[in-house]
Design brief:
alpha/beta; 2-enoyl-CoA Hydratase, Chain A, domain 1; 6-stranded mixed sheet; two-stranded parallel sheet; 11 helices; globular; isomerase; Enoyl-CoA hydratase/isomerase family protein; Enoyl-CoA_hydra/iso; isomerase activity
Length: 279
C-alpha cells in the first residue's frame, strides 16, 4: 500500500503488519466529510493488502474524535426537505463503518482521550475500543458520549445499532435517550469499550495489545471475525436505512437548528440550555 499520499486530516504509518492512522484535525479534532473521504481512500488500500493484520485508528493530543463537524451539521439542518430530491438510503458514516467491520484485519479504535457523538459511533464499528483513562496533562476530562438527543437529533452513524447489540434494549435506551458524557470507567462497565488503560502507560499498553493481535494466526482471526459477523450483523443495512429516515426530520427541525446554532455561538456546556418546542 502507498504510504506517501498527501492526506490533510489523517497521518498514516506502517510498522510490519500493523497500519496506524492518526486523525489529525486541530484544533477541534472533529469528524468531517473530507476526513471520511481520506479514510475511505486508505481503506481501499488496506482491503487489497493481505499483509495488513491489524488496523489502528487513534487521535491527537488527548482527543480521539470529538463529534461530527457541527458547522456541516448546521448547514444540513437548514435544508428544506420538501425541496430535497434525493435522500441517501444510508449515510457516508454508515458506509465507512461497514467497510471497517468487513476488513480482514483486526481493527482497533485507540481512543486516546475525549470522544463523542459521531466519533463514538465511528469507534463502535471497530473490533476493539482501547480507551485511555483520564490523566495528568489532559486539557479536558476524558469522556465517552452519544449526546445527539441533547442537540435535538437522533444518532445517524450506526450508534443505535451497535448500542442495542452491545448493551441490550434497556441500557441502549438509557444511554441514547440521556445522551450523557460518561467517564471511561462507566463506558467500560457498560461494555461500550473493550479495555481501559491508565493515561500514563496508554501508548505502551495499546502497543502491547496490537502486537499480540498481529502475532496471532491471521486465518484463524479472520475466521472468527466472519463467524461473529454472521451471527450478529444480519439486518444491519435495513437498520441503517431506517436510521437515516429518523435522522433527516430531526436534523431539519427547528429544535435541532436552535441547538446547533446555540452551541456554535457559545460552545460552553454550562451555558448551553436550548428550550425545545417539539418543532
Amino acid at each position: 500500500m502507498e504510504m506517501n499520499m498527501d492526506y490533510k486530516q489523517i497521518v498514516v504509518e506502517r510498522e510490519g503488519n500493523v497500519v496506524t492512522c492518526r486523525v489529525f484535525n486541530p484544533p477541534l479534532q472533529v469528524f468531517t466529510t473530507p476526513m471520511m473521504a481520506e479514510l475511505n481512500h486508505l481503506l481501499s488500500e488496506i482491503e487489497n493488502d493481505d499483509s495488513v493484520r491489524v488496523f489502528v485508528v487513534t487521535g491527537t493530543d488527548g482527543v480521539f474524535i470529538r463529534w461530527m463537524d457541527l458547522t456541516e451539521m448546521s448547514d444540513h439542518s437548514k435544508a428544506d426537505l420538501s425541496e430535497v430530491t434525493y435522500v441517501p438510503t444510508i449515510g457516508p458514516i454508515h458506509e465507512l463503518g461497514m467497510r471497517i467491520q468487513k476488513l480482514k484485519a483486526v481493527t482497533v479504535a485507540a481512543i486516546n482521550g475525549v470522544v463523542g457523538g459521531g466519533g463514538c459511533e465511528f469507534s463502535l464499528s471497530f473490533d476493539f475500543r482501547l480507551m485511555s483513562a483520564d490523566g495528568p496533562g489532559y486539557a479536558e476530562p476524558v469522556t465517552f458520549a452519544l449526546p445527539q438527543t441533547s442537540f435535538g437529533l437522533t444518532p445517524g452513524g450506526g450508534g443505535a445499532w451497535h448500542c442495542i447489540r452491545l448493551l441490550g434494549r434497556a441500557k441502549a435506551l438509557d444511554v441514547l435517550l440521556h445522551g450523557e458524557f460518561m467517564p471511561p470507567e462507566q463506558a467500560l462497565e457498560l461494555g461500550l469499550i473493550s479495555r481501559l488503560y491508565p493515561a500514563e502507560t496508554y501508548e505502551q499498553d495499546v502497543a502491547a495489545f496490537v502486537n499480540n493481535m498481529a502475532a496471532r494466526a491471521p486465518l484463524a482471526l479472520q475466521g472468527v471475525k466472519r463467524l461473529v459477523s454472521f451471527g450478529t450483523d444480519a439486518g444491519q443495512l435495513d437498520f441503517c436505512a431506517q436510521e437515516m429516515k429518523e435522522l433527516m426530520p430531526t436534523l431539519t427541525s427547528k429544535d435541532a437548528q436552535l441547538a446547533l446554532t446555540s452551541w456554535l455561538e457559545n460552545p460552553d456546556p454550562a451555558a448551553y440550555n436550548p428550550q425545545f418546542t417539539g418543532e
